[in-house]
Amino acid sequence: MMKTKAKGASELPLNTILPGDCVEVMNALPENSVDLIFADPPYNLQLRGDLHRPDNSKVDAVDDHWDQFASFEAYDRFTKDWLKAARRILKPNGAIWVIGSYHNIFRVGAALQNEGYWILNDVVWRKANPMPNFRGKRLTNAHETMIWASKSEKAKYTFNYEALKELNEGVQMRSDWVLPICNGHERLKDANGDKAHPTQKPQSLLHRVLIGSTNPGDVVLDPFFGTGTTGAVAKMLGRNFIGIEREEAYREVAEARIAKIRKFDNEALEVTRAKRAEPRVPFGQLVERGMLRPGEELWSSNGRHKAKVRADGTLTNEDDIKGSIHQVGAKLEGAPSCNGWTYWCIKRDGKQIPIDAMRQQIRQEMR
Ligand SMILES: C[S@@+](CC[C@H](N)C(=O)[O-])C[C@H]1O[C@@H](n2cnc3c(N)ncnc32)[C@H](O)[C@@H]1O
After folding, report:
1. Whose CA is nearest to atom 5 of ligand 1?
2. What is the pLDDT of residues 4-30, one digit of tens each?
3. CA of 115 to the centre of ligand 1 (A)
4. If you measure from the C-alpha of residue 138 to the centroid of ligand 1, how many angstroms do you get, rounded to a whole number?
């Protein structure tokens, strides 16, 4: 087993795959200790008999024993138990992602709310290359749903908005993600060349989840580890992982996979962050500091309007329009709003200088 210790999380078995039932294992971990949980629980597919293609070949469907539940009630009990155990170990500002299909995700969604989680988004993972519908009796099932929820309504969960926007070429990341299913060289095979696991998730999905909702050094736990996709991406991205998996064969596949992964260098792991909020500078401060004198004239940047500065930091003009730099600018332009800082200019040595330059000077002094 791989083991490394991170500062401040000494009680946690970091970067380790733990054997056993995930409820029991999570109950043995310290409470409030994990930043994020990514869970890909059994789907409870309720398959009745084998599924065949038109040429009579058998479809490699998920019919494994770990996906069998006696009834919906049994599945609901199981869901409630693991969600409860997961919530206890999440830090107060922690969050969870659960992925599922129409077979289970609605039951999981209700259980999340019943257990006190606060749903933030549901994300549709649209499969760029879904498996066709062989019988032609229903729509091609081309997506899975992920629910993202914080530990509670009040939680200050991690959301790297700017980083996701950059990942999407400068456009806000939406809740529908088009990504291919896992195949090609990424699909792990066993000794016979068969799929090592029927539901291995693509790394691209986890990349987006972890970039968007964790930071380097965070602890990410996956209670249904399978082939360890969460651990592999977490390691690449400099996050710590804890995996839990009941089946020894899957643990072995996951360990071998993760051992080969190399972490990206620290510089590459820095992501774009929101600009730190600049300190607020009221326009009146320019007057108080003597940078602008009451009675001094300001000109609109288009040169069409002028107004006079008043002693209380408001403006007035010859038509008796009065108000803040923003209000007077908006009124003169007939616009719903106006950024007075860039709209108004002073004239110095024949040049127009936006009053924003004075605000920046004050901000420099405040740093
Ligand atoms: C849907 S698969 C997860 C696949 C994984 N996301 C991947 O990319 O390989 C669910 C996994 O959970 C495991 N599992 C099911 N019930 C479990 C339980 N109660 N405790 C621990 N593992 C469990 C199964 O053995 C299976 O490997």
Report:
1. 226
2. 444 345 689 999 999 999 999 999 999
3. 21
4. 27
Return the percentage of the chain with pLDDT > 90, whole number.
75
Global pTM reads 0.74
CA nearest neighbour of 232 among 19, 15, 36: 15
For the chain, the C-alpha Rg in angstroms (whole number) is 28
Q: Are 45 and 103 a contacting pair, CB within 8 Å? A: yes
The finding on whether 250 has its CB within 6 A of some atom of ligand 1 is yes
Instruction: Compute the distance from residue 150 Cα to the ligand 1 centre, in Å.
Output: 22
* Probe target for ligand 1 pocket from 225, 227, 229, 255, with the most ligand atoms within 8 Å of CB: 225
Q: Which of 246, 250, 257 to mutate to test the pocket of ligand 1 (most atoms within 8 A of CB)?
A: 246
* Beta strands 90-100; 344-348: pairing state: unpaired
Which atom of ligand 1 lies at the shortest distance from residue 224's CA?
12
The residue whose CA is least distant from atom 13 of ligand 1 is: 224
Per residue in 294-320, pLDDT (tens digit) is 999 999 999 999 999 999 999 999 999
Q: Is the CB of 150 under 6 A from ligand 1?
A: no
* CA–centroid distance, residue 239 to ligand 1 (Å): 21
Q: How far apart are CA 203 and CA 229, in angstroms?
A: 6
Phi, psi of 333, rounded to the nearest 5 degrees: -90, -5
